[in-house]
Amino acid sequence: MGISWFYVVAILLFITNAATLCRGGITSSYVRKVESSEDMPLDSDVFRVPHGYNAPQQVHLTQGDHVGKGVIVSWVTMDEPGSNKVLYWEANSKIKQIAKGTVSTYRYHTYNSGYIHHCTIQNLKYNTKYYYMVGTGHSRRTFWFVTPPPVGPDASYTFGLIGDLGQTYDSNMTLTHYEMNPNQGQTVLFVGDLSYADKYPNHDNNRWDTWGRFVERSNAYQPWIWTAGNHDVDFAPEIGEPEPFKPYTKRYPVPYQASGSTSPLWYSIKRASAYIIVLSTYSATSKYTPQYRWLEAELKKVNRKETPWLIVLMHCPWYNSYGYHYMEGETMRVIYEPWFVKYKVDMVFAGHVHAYERSKRISNIDYKIVSGECTPANNQSAPVYITVGDGGNIEGLTTKMTEPQPKYSAYRESSFGHAILEIKNRTHAYYSWHRNQDGFSAKADSFLFFNRYWHPVDESY
What we know:
Blueprint: H1 2-22, E1 26-27, E2 57-63, E3 71-77, E4 85-90, E5 97-100, E6 102-104, E7 107-108, E8 111-112, E9 115-121, E10 129-134, E11 141-146, E12 157-162, H2 169-180, E13 187-190, H3 206-219, E14 224-225, H4 246-251, E15 267-271, E16 274-278, H5 290-301, E17 309-313, H6 330-342, E18 347-350, E19 356-359, E20 362-363, E21 377-378, E22 384-388, E23 409-413, E24 417-423, E25 428-435, E26 445-450
Parallel strand pairs: 1-23, 12-13, 13-14, 16-17, 17-18, 18-22
Antiparallel strand pairs: 2-3, 3-9, 4-5, 4-10, 6-9, 7-8, 10-11, 12-24, 15-16, 19-22, 19-23, 20-21, 24-25, 25-26
């Protein structure tokens, strides 16, 4: 009888310990109404063409240099090239300056683009509001932006995070929710998949135009930092389009040469106290490729005494507990993850999976086939991995999750939304994720980050 009870107790202890070892974090109890995402009609006001002959449209900004003193202004004119100049001035000054840009067009299958303008404005003052004007005559349009503070360890700054946006009713809700957030970012870190033009017959590039008009209400006033996703590749040799990323690179330039990159698909910038590295999941990543060589050299350049916060953007997540795109980033992870741990990357933001998830600080760099060590382990030198591929695109939500929730997963939810990263100083940053269905200031998930270089303690408690 004693032996029987011994076995019962042993089995119960085994089950309890096994549950503890396998238990993950929180799978949200919030249940979003399951419905398909639907594109907004083309006559929606969000796609409206601005008034006036040849009026500039699809106006958007991104950083124009490595340190935040430059901005790239882009826009499209449909009827003729028009002026390729930008008139700009400080908010409290009457002195106007002129910057001259370039104009180009491209053809994709049977589509002919409008006239695409790009103009880089250099040597701006930090922490300054500027107005800028594009177009001529009665079709001139005026916008504004604010430059970041000087690069430095205690420069506070707020970023918005959006991914996989598209142009559905849910996309509009996401962008509106972000715009109405009282802690709206000063710059958006966009983790890929912009227009989803490739979801339409022959990759209908008119959908690049509608998307550009849709996001102008935000992107003309604050820079968006671009990351390329799989729906931005537009590789379609079957219709005579063998050049990958053609519409994306023609429309959305980035300052890649400022960081020594040979491709606009991977690059870095400094902004306030953050060093941001953008990687391309859909370019070659293996050893000795251009992206590999660049990243190897780039990580060595990061001075954490100047820019304490080291942030990486990519499209495909390395850690993902949903049923879709599971382990798609594994090859890239195996190659680059040891560097992320060595250089103490603070956080990695990705999209691709149309849901939300935040990991614990974990790594799988000890993976060994012979020993069988293949489970991600807690590692305080590793980043937190966050998936924000929940912008609201036509493909809809990812709802299937792996069960049980992996131990490395801290929080996950199948909803659309956006995130906010508020860098406070060199040691602390506050992060929050906001589902579309809540009030503008409501936080469905939040996390206090401790910097890996200046304050490398376990914040998971």
